Fold:
Amino acid sequence: MTVTQGADLGTATRILDTAEELLQVRGYNAFSYADVASALKLTKASLHYHFPSKAELGVALVTRYSDRFAEGLDRIDDTDNSPPSKLVAYVDLYAQVIAGGRMCLCGMLAAEYPTLPPPMQAGVRSFIDRNQGWLAGVLDHGTAAGSLHTSGSSADAAMMLLAGLEGAMLVARPYADVERFRSAARQLLAAVGVRTH
Structure:
């Protein structure tokens, strides 16, 4: 990405914001620079100034989304003490995304994984690995404290939770119904011993 200052930095952020929404609603392969340029009333040349290729834009999107999600995990770690409450807060990160009419950016990209440029593929894997690792850590602590339980390893349970939440988003999407997502999420949490109301 080109390093820019002042108004140019604002333009780069606006490009990322618009491209992120398009990706989360349509998918990576279903939007173009022309779509972003039209939405922002910019020339395609301006987009290429900030992001010379769509692949570079895609990498910037994955990096930014992953960093923000990691900040969300840090906030959970800083504010929630019990492993069950951490898992409930984690589910809320996903619920907020689907409530906004969007899908998890990296979940959308995982569906298109074979067609992505290699740096984006690496970013998607990194997002998945980071989330599975965080979930496994929470499950380890909860199991040790007796507040959570898993039928197998914490790593397997973490994979089940992550896959289940991403899948719950997909199943709820056609109905534009956050409660469908939350209902599935409650069942996933119950499988590791989290009681929700």
Residues 1-6 have pLDDT under 50 and may be disordered. The longest helix spans residues 118-145. The CA atoms of residues 66 and 127 lie 6 Å apart. The radius of gyration is 18 Å.
